[in-house]
Design brief:
The protein is mostly beta strands. Helix content is 6%, strand content 48%.
């Protein structure tokens, strides 16, 4: 078993079994959701322990994703994995273009207005259809559309800051 590593990025979790041959159902955080099975090796965490496992095949199935994992050949073996967090090593992520970000990199950034007033920290992001929305937690919760150029003026991952054009009273 490997030790917990801050370099692991959560991609989803196993939330069920599929059929009798050991396939598992996946709740995927990736976009598109079936992208999760493109990673050939996952780290699974059940409880506090991590274990590496190979992904043999997978696909979208109705509103979920299913996968066949190495060494998991029966429904009973798949049931043991229900609830496992799925992660990959950070170095498995594809580089992003200038001005694009993985959500995991935005979470934890300090958010301030153009005048330097602190609004809090990015706690989460939500997908709304029109655009993603930042969930900022400070003295209160704020929801700010992640629209670069209009509301989000600067993202500085190295400094751990984001500057936004946002009325602090709103």
């Amino acid at each position: 078993m490997a030790e917990d590593s801050p370099e692991r990025i959560a991609l989803g979790r196993i939330n069920g079994h599929f059929g009798v041959k050991g396939w598992v159902k996946i709740y995927s955080y990736t976009k598109p959701r079936e992208q999760i099975v493109a990673y050939p090796t996952w780290w699974l965490r059940l409880g506090r322990e991590w274990r590496s496992i190979k992904v043999l095949e997978g696909k979208a199935q109705a509103k979920t994703v299913i996968a066949r994992l190495e060494g998991i050949d029966s429904r009973e073996q798949a049931e043991v994995l229900i609830g496992a967090e799925i992660a990959i090593n950070r170095d498995q992520l594809q580089p992003v273009a200038e001005g694009e970000y993985y959500w995991v990199d935005l979470i934890g950034l300090q958010v301030e207005t153009l005048s330097g007033e602190s609004l809090g920290v990015v706690e989460d992001l939500m997908e709304t259809g029109a655009n993603d929305v930042l969930v900022i937690r400070g003295e209160r919760e704020r929801l700010i559309p992640f629209v670069q150029g209009q509301f989000v003026k600067e993202v500085d991952l190295k400094a751990g800051k984001m500057r936004v054009d946002w009325d602090p009273e709103f």
